[in-house]
Design goal:
This protein is of the alpha/beta class. Helices cover 28% and strands 15% of the residues. The chain has a single domain, classed as Alkaline Phosphatase, subunit A. The strands form 3 sheets. It has an 8-stranded mixed sheet. Strands 10-3-13 form a 3-stranded mixed sheet.
């Protein structure tokens, strides 16, 4: 009898020890479920419109109709535009404080690291006259293509490397999709008349018309990607975001002091460029979802480096990837 009790008590002790080591007894750690790696990523960058102007307005019906993941607490890093573009590609603070296209960055970059690790990159620029063009604007007078929105060519080493030839006119995108020769990372940048920014050369200058023109751009080019065999058979991510918020977003009621003022986030991470829309389309996720977790352009950079298994490129303190579907907000 004593032997039986000893055996039973021994088994109970083993069971209790096993249960204590089982995750059920561990303190819960909340994070977004791991995402399967994307084969190809497209980043479409629009210009100078805040979250409320697009999501709460009526001028972007196509964008607001798209199914995907919507990050409702996504922030840009700085004003003006240029520092946001280069930060997405790997530039660290202090970021440039101007839109001067003569700025050259000497540090590491996402495109360079991708190529170094055997991946392909490309930048599809609307209005670019030819591959690798390095001029300030095109046309040179009242240009709609501008170098300040072409981040690949703002990094010195990229500008002097073969990557320069991967900066091509946007009209090559359908051809590359049809041939199956699309880069693993593709940056898509509209010209000033289709990115919601506006320019002297545009046929319209009204803020509402600029937003409508940008929405029509998305309504044309996103279906081009989604109708491709690449999108149908592989895992493709399409990110649609804005570089920074507008300087004077207004609500529909108008008025000199009637500006949309988003409350500043409590997070200590960078957010000085304003609250902006962010859409994440995944070819393998059909159900819409949204996340209220804080994120910024460095979150995008961090997610891209994770996806392609690259060395860390985001600065310390900003290495928090984009929140995925079903995740709980990080407290980092």
């Amino acid at each position: 009898m004593k032997i039986i009790l000893c055996i039973i008590s021994g088994r109970c002790l083993f069971f209790l020890l096993a249960m204590m080591s089982f995750p059920f007894f561990s303190l819960p750690v909340f994070a977004s479920p791991p995402l399967k790696r994307a084969d190809h990523v497209f980043i479409i960058i629009m210009e100078n419109k805040g979250f409320g102007e697009i999501v709460h307005g009526t001028d972007a019906p196509f964008f607001n109709s798209l199914s995907g993941g919507r990050l409702t607490n996504y922030w840009s890093l700085a004003h003006p535009s240029l520092p946001n573009y280069v930060a997405m590609m790997g530039a660290w603070p202090p970021l440039p404080a101007s839109d001067d296209p003569r700025i050259r960055l000497e540090g590491d970059s996402l495109p360079e690291e991708l190529v170094r690790h055997g991946h392909s990159v490309g930048s599809y620029m609307q209005g670019l006259p030819r591959a690798g063009f390095g001029g300030k604007s095109a046309p040179s007078l009242f240009g709609r293509y501008v170098l300040k929105h072409d981040p690949f060519l703002l990094f010195s080493r990229l500008r002097e490397s073969p990557v320069r030839k991967t900066v091509v006119p946007l009209h090559k995108l359908p051809e590359d999709l049809a041939r199956g020769s699309i880069p693993e990372l593709s940056l898509i940048v509209p010209d000033l008349c289709h990115d919601m920014h506006g320019a002297f050369a545009c046929h319209f200058h009204n803020r509402h018309e600029l937003v409508k023109a940008g929405d029509r751009f998305l309504a044309h080019w996103i279906p081009v990607i989604e109708s491709s065999q690449l999108f149908r058979t592989g895992r493709v991510w399409i990110f649609v975001l804005w570089d920074e918020s507008g300087y004077g977003e207004r609500s529909d009621s108008g008025g000199k002091d009637d500006r949309i003022r988003d409350p500043l986030p409590k997070e200590k991470r960078l957010h000085a460029g304003g609250h902006i829309p962010f859409l994440w389309i995944d070819s393998k996720v059909s159900s819409p979802w949204q996340s209220p977790c804080f994120a910024n352009h460095y979150s995008l950079l961090e997610s891209l480096t994770h996806n392609f298994s690259l060395p860390e490129l985001a600065p310390p303190g900003e290495r928090v990837p984009l929140p995925g579907p079903g995740g709980v907000c990080s407290k980092d």
